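User: I'm designing a mutation panel for p-loop ATPase, MinD superfamily and want to avoid disrupting the core. Could you give me a predicted structure to guide residue selection? Please restate the sequence first so the numbering is unambiguous.

Assistant: Good idea. Sequence first, for numbering, then the predicted structure tokens:
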Amino acid sequence: MVKQLTVISGKGGTGKTTFTSSFAALAQNAVIADCDVDAADMHLILQPEIFETHDFYGLDVASVNRNLCTDCGICVSSCRFAAICSDKVIDVYKCEGCGVCEYVCPENAVSMIKKKAGEYYCSNTRFGPLVHAKLGVGEEASGKLVSEVRSRASELAEESGKDLIVVDGPPGTGCAVIAATTGTDLVLVVTEPTKSGVHDLERVVQVARHFRIPVVVCINKCDINDKLSVSIVEYCKNNGIPVMGMLPYDDVVIESMVAGKSVVEYSDGQISESIRLVWEKLEDLLMQDKAGLVQLL
């Protein structure tokens, strides 16, 4: 059975992709899925060679048949998003695809049509298959695209005999995060000792536990604020959340990103060894059956 590990952060900039790219390097038989579709960056490190491209269609948008339209203005006044101009032009960046204009039009001159909102790709990398995506500027339905990425990653894992999917999740706590975590076997939250890091850690843990996903935590850049790091450890202890590791700030991380490599590829120093230890702990957890992982809830 294919296991799934999702790495999330609650907020951007905690080092989520730093960890996920290193896990991709350390995993022996995995498919990698970059589910941060709004600002994907895993490809910058893994340098993928695309072998498959799929169009992604998000929300439908309105279209006006000028030959049928009588300029009655009902659709204009009914659109709460002001997406229909008086000259029968639809502003696709304002249209939310609700379909009210189609419903109220007395001449059946308005119809909802599919609109390409992005693409997702299957690629080969030096660490194995990667599924990644690009959502168009201003487009909605990022959660739907994340689901497409995860679905294709699962298919690739089955086709290629992989036993693990490592998911680089999006930041935040919205629908894209929910789409990236639901149904996974284990969630790793990468946090940092900052005010926003602590706040968003608590929020994203609530999301994962709402969907009954086992959660563990790793504190990155733990030495930038010792007091808040202690506070995070205490929070995890009080809520029964295992802390997989506490990693100090290290310039090697930035150097590895600039070089286009994962940290564990770039250096054999302390930070790489710490990431390896975190990965070993995660592997041990993922080897457990569902009953064992449920104990983390």
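For picking mutation sites, this is relevant: The chain has twelve helices and eleven strands. Residues 59-113 form a domain with the Alpha-Beta Plaits fold (CATH 3.30.70.20).
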